[in-house]
Amino acid sequence: MQNKAAKSKISKEFARLRKFGFFVFNFNFRSALPEGLKSFVDLIIVSKKYLIFIEVKVGEDKFSKEQKELMKVLSHLSTGNKAVHYLIINNIKECMVYIEHILGGKL
């Protein structure tokens, strides 16, 4: 249960980016997602400068086979493209660092 609370807090912190004009899409509600989206990333952040895919893995949370395949595809998309990023967030401290980088345009 502690992992869910931590993931929720991280999602809420990224959602604050909406106040700065970012679009933040949260797919972190696995029970509410259709079958085909259950392996999708937890968050997508979109702005005029960035397209950011975020996977949140806290504690004992592990990647599924499908998530590993998606990670390879999204990581490949981000290679050589300064606008596209794939991030794995493990804790609130990392979350806050990335938010600072996002707001500062320094990803």
Strand order in the largest sheet: 1-2-3-4
Q: How far is the N terminus from the C terminus?
A: 31 Å
Major sheet description: 4 strands, mixed
Series of secondary-structure elements, N-terminal to C-terminal: HEEEHEH
Q: Percentage of helical residues? A: 25-40%
Which second-level CATH architecture applies? Answer: 3-Layer(aba) Sandwich
Q: Kindly state the mean pLDDT as a whole number?
A: 89
Descriptive report:
The chain starts with a helix and ends with a helix. The chain contains three helices and four strands, in the order αβββαβα. Helices cover 38% and strands 19% of the residues. The protein is of the alpha+beta class and 107 residues long. The protein has a single domain (2-104), classed as Trna Endonuclease, Chain: A, domain 1. The longest helix has 14 residues, at 2-15.
Layout of strands and helices, then pairs:
Layout: H1 2-15, E1 23-26, E2 43-46, E3 51-56, H2 65-78, E4 84-89, H3 92-104
Parallel strand pairs: 3-4
Antiparallel strand pairs: 1-2, 2-3
Helix pairs in contact: 1-3
